Amino acid sequence: MAALCSAQQARQRLTSFVNPFIGTATLWDSTELGYKPTHRAWGAEVFPGASLPNSMVQVTPVTMWRSGSGYQYEDTVIYAFAHTSKGHWNLCYVPLIAVSGDVSPESYYSRFRHTNESASPGYYQVYLEKYGINAEVTATLRCAYHKYTYQKGGQKKILADLARSNEKVHEWKIEKSGDNAFSGYQKTGSSFYFYAVTNHRIKDIESLKDGNTEVRIVDFYDNKNPGDPLEMKVGFSYVSVENARRNLEQEMLNKNFDQVKSEAGNRWEQLLSKIQVSGGTADQKETFYSTLYRSFLWPILLSDANGQFRNAKGEVVNKGFRYYSDPSFWDDYRNKLILLGMLAPDVATDVIQSITDRGAIKGYMPTFFHGDHASVFVAGSYLRGIRGFDVKKAYRLLLNNAFVNGAGGRPYLKEYMERGWIAEMDIKDPKLETVAKAAVTKTQEYAYDDYATALLAKALGDEENYSKLMKRTGSYKRLFDPATQLMRGRLANGAWITPFNPEEPYYEYMYREANGWQSSFFAPHDPQGLIGLYPNKAAFEKKLDSLFTIPWKNYEAYNLTSFIGQYCHGNQPDHSAPYLYYFIGKQEKAQRILNKILNEFYRRGPERLAYAGMDDAGEMSSWYVLNALGLYTFSPADPEYLVTVPLFSKVVVDLNGTRFKILKKGNGEKISGLTYAGKKLPGYFIKHSQLLLGKELIITTDTFNKEHRQ
Predict the structure, then answer these.
(1) Distance between CA atoms of 526 and 537, rounded to whole angstroms?
(2) Measured in whole angstroms, how far is the alpha carbon of residue 242 from the centre of its chain?
(3) pLDDT at 632 over 90
(4) Which of 244, 305, 392, 695 has CB atoms 3.0–4.6 Å from 235's, for a disulfide?
């Protein structure tokens, strides 16, 4: 036992492999972007600040307002520390920061250098040059801890810029609440309340104005020892100031900074330890654990320590579960939400209860941006054994989404049901920014959503709706143009959209954030049906090869970046395309592409801190995690995984207490053998129920013959 403890102590902490700055940089090089940029492309748009897994608080520096997460690596100034961040140009609530001396509301920000900046899971530090202040922050689930060490002396102050966030601020308030406390709120779409306690006595809170700009300054009395840091503990709540105070008292008030920082690191270590990898390079481990860390920052907690939250009506309720924000369904249903269920099933359960609660009030399950992918999340989670939610209630709402036309449900549902596909608007000379129906993408995605809901119908014994939904799962085929062998928009009269250039991207015309090439290979529920649209497998292979070989023609779009031919890894729509080689007996061709993405598309730019594109609440990160493991959610509604070649020679995964192993033999691209529990696997899929047996998956590989390479 002593030897075991010694070995565990000697093991390097997995949090030490996490670099929270990975993803914060932006690509500018045309060879990496795929075009010559005339403006800043969208990076991963992630934040480097302190947070816990799926917590309410993300305390992070703001270097530019209205810019993704609020932080961009190329920036040189820090405005404040915001306390919420996602990476979609929203949130960044309650900006607070320490200052000193005379302060201007227009220019209070401070320069900083990356050489005086550091971060680790649950911790962030930066030196504010303007004020000579070393700033450190850490967090609990619902609270932030600020520590400011004034290295040049000076009057200690906290600046609150509550008129700003990444959203429009409708109302705000800050007031003194005791000798060492102040409180208030900031109202955007909802109100975010705070209650702060400081280690220095508060003198007063003054208003500073410069034209239309107004900030508040919390001024403190000098302590007897001027070298004492200024420390501020802040509780937050979406319910009330009183709940913010209670959250602070329960989670942080009686702890010092180092204790909170250590507990935050331990919380992350516990989560990261659910996947342990051996082999691979130090660089691969850093990228792996950094992407695993990124995968668990969204959705965020909205309920308080006492269980209270504001529901979709704005009522304060307590339903006995933790209330979470909506996931970014269009982005992360593919992989992140399944990874969430694998490693944190209790959180996945409460996320489903949360979206069901919102759905019960509005009549429809939340849809988010595009598609109807709560269906995939609920079905996939239930079929993988997650049971701690009212599945019948959730299912009834999914049926509303699938069959009931109305505001809050699927757009153009009536047309989809009656025609069997969605027609595009007749628009002359469409542009990248043209606002239309994204009819091809909607038809494809509704077909898959119908499939997901059908799986749940079958599991619940509803054969009637199972049959109805399954008949609709082939809807995507009606938009396949045999002449171009691509998915193509059609007008209401059935005519194909003309002229048709499948290389030109659109945000919302025919396709959603994609072009015809990127959108033509989406049918994760029916890959054989998709292949069957072509004359034969050889014709399909040739077309799929073209996706990865026809050069990108310098089209510039904010969120379409980093290409392999026409394939865009910087955005989600075609992320399932490489795996289609599996279904025509060419698995090794898929792996060659996957290896290129794993090795070249997540550590880009001169600092090696840029992703190929937006992380989109963890989707890009989760793609890396699952493929590095050797398991991918090709059809996330199905309780199974497509086996790929992992980066590491050995992987141990803890599925809610059951540990299974993945062992790689050989370093080739071609899978020559697959066994689980000593038995050969038929094909390339392994079921979730098999992984729960806790056995060994052995992946044997051979080198792909070079003469077969493209």
Answers:
(1) 15
(2) 31
(3) yes
(4) 244
Cis peptide before 366 (omega within 30 of 0): no
The C-alpha atoms of residue 159 and residue 219 are separated, in whole angstroms, by 9
Bridge partners of 181?
178, 197
What are the helix and strand counts (H, E) for the chain? 18, 32
Tokens of 292: 């695993």
Residue type at position 216: R
How far apart are the C-alpha atoms of 206 and 568, rounded to whole Å? 51
Q: How far apart are CA 286 and CA 306, in angstroms?
A: 37
The residue type at 113: R
Alpha-helix residue ranges (DSSP H) falling in 553-634? 587-600, 619-629
Tokens of 553: 């023609």
Phi–psi pair at 317, nearest 5 degrees? -135, 170
Segment holding 454, helix H or strand E = helix 439-459
Phi and psi dihedrals of 631, rounded to 5? -135, 125
| Mean pLDDT taken over the chain | 95
Rounded CA-CA distance 533/483 in Å is 11
Q: List the structure tokens of 686.
A: 């392994």
Give the HSE-up count for residue 666: Cα atoms under 13 Å, Cβ half-sphere.
15
Residues with Cβ < 8 Å from 599, sequence gap 6 or more?
none
Ranges of H-type helices in 169-240: none
Q: How far apart are CA 596 and CA 592, in angstroms?
A: 6
- Statement: the pTM of the whole predicted model exceeds 0.85: yes
The DSSP bridge pattern shows strands 157-160 and 96-99 to be antiparallel
Contact 394, 469 (CB under 8 A): no
Edge-first strand order for the sheet with 670-676 is: 275-278, 650-655, 658-665, 696-702, 670-676, 679-680
Whether the CB-CB separation of 440 and 489 falls below 8 Å is answered with: yes
Cα(416)–Cα(478) distance, integer angstroms: 11
**396, exposed or middle or buried, with CB in 10 Å at 0-12, 13-18, 19+?**
middle
Residue 114 phi, psi (nearest 5) = -65, -20
219-226, long-range: CB within 8 Å, 24+ apart, which pairs?
219/155, 219/157, 220/155, 220/156, 220/157, 220/158, 222/155, 222/156, 226/150, 226/153
CA distances to 115, 116, 171 from 369, in Å: 39, 39, 27
What letter would DSSP give residue 610?
A: B
List residues bridging with 278 in a β-sheet: 650
Q: What is the spatial distance between Cα 656 and Cα 322, in angstroms, rounded to a whole number? A: 19
